[in-house]
TrEMBL record:
PANTHER family, sorted: PTS SYSTEM GLUCITOL/SORBITOL-SPECIFIC EIIC COMPONENT, PTS SYSTEM GLUCITOL_SORBITOL-SPECIFIC EIIC COMPONENT
Keyword entries, A-Z: Membrane, Transmembrane, Transmembrane helix
Keyword Coiled coil found: no
Regions crossing the membrane: 22-47, 67-86, 142-168
Provenance organism: Enterococcus alishanensis
Protein name in UniProt: PTS glucitol/sorbitol transporter subunit IIC
Pfam families: EII-GUT
Length: 189
């Protein structure tokens, strides 16, 4: 009977710990993410989808703006997974590369901007605990991780462009490299 009681206590403790974590998020990270989402949707509504499409179109002309600046802004303003929604403004050809770059950035920015990917914060906290144990500064590590991530994510986006072009050629398909507005639709999906 003692084992059953200990198992039941441990089982309930798991849910109590989960509830405490949930409540801590509700008073810290969730409001920040919610307000950032409201801000970004307000900006999109204020500017209009046509202007956002024009910004994405301008961003898609240059790999640095396409895979460095736009993913950073999307991740910072919207967090993961909401940041992927800005991909809807990208031309079809660049959507896989934008996704690749942004997906990587949501991981590499977590140390300095934990609101971007709170679901993986435990990974960063584990690394940070080791760094703290060694007496080193975690902010320095977070900034290095962010900077290396920005460069590698942009490179990853560009490599995905090459891969997309190869697959398109192999499959005999052509994806649009421009955003085209059609009547009845404000932005090409």
């Amino acid at each position: 009977m003692e084992y059953v009681v200990k198992f039941a206590e441990g089982f309930m403790n798991l849910f109590q710990t989960g509830a405490e974590t949930f409540i801590s998020w509700m008073t810290s990270i969730v409001p920040v993410v919610l307000i950032l989402m409201v801000l970004m949707n307000t900006i999109i509504a204020f500017l209009g989808e046509e202007r956002m499409t024009k910004i994405a179109k301008a961003s898609s002309k240059n790999p640095l703006t396409r895979y460095l600046i736009l993913p950073f802004l999307a991740a910072f303003m919207l967090g993961n997974p909401m940041s992927f929604t800005l991909g809807r403004f990208m031309p079809e050809f660049y959507k896989p590369s934008y996704y690749a770059s942004l997906a990587q950035f949501c991981h590499t920015s977590n140390g300095i901007f934990p609101h971007i990917n709170p679901g993986e914060l435990f990974v960063w906290l584990g690394i940070a605990q080791g760094i703290t144990t060694l007496g080193l500064n975690t902010t320095e590590l977070a900034i290095r991780y962010l900077l290396v991530g920005l460069v590698m994510n942009a490179l990853g986006g560009w490599v995905t462009d090459l891969t997309t072009a190869y697959v398109c050629k192999q499959q005999g398909i052509e994806l649009s490299k421009s955003v085209e507005l059609t009547e009845g639709k404000k932005a090409a999906a």
